[in-house]
Amino acid sequence: MEAHYEKKESSSSKPMFNLKASNGQIIGTSELYNSTSARDTGIESVKNNAPTATIVDLTAA
Fold first, then answer.
1. Is the pTM here over 0.85, yes or no?
2. For each of the chain's 61 residues, which pLDDT tens digit applies?
3. Can you tell me whether residue 54 is helix, strand or coil?
4. What is the DSSP string of 24-44?
5. CB-count exposure of residue 23 (10 Å: 0-12, 13-18, 19+)
6. CA 30 to CA 32: how far, in whole Å?
């Protein structure tokens, strides 16, 4: 769902995105990209690969 991907610019003006949960909480932050098209490709990669990714809960450590 597109609403879960907040497209932004870092303080150094590099494109990036935040991944948000249904409640609006940020649950992931991307790397910094060199272009908006590279950022958009990163978003598409998350959309395609996240459903089958292994989940590692680091909050329990």
1. no
2. 889 999 999 999 999 999 999 999 999 999 999 999 999 999 999 999 998 999 888 887 6
3. coil
4. S-EEEEPPP-SSHHHHHHHHH
5. exposed
6. 6
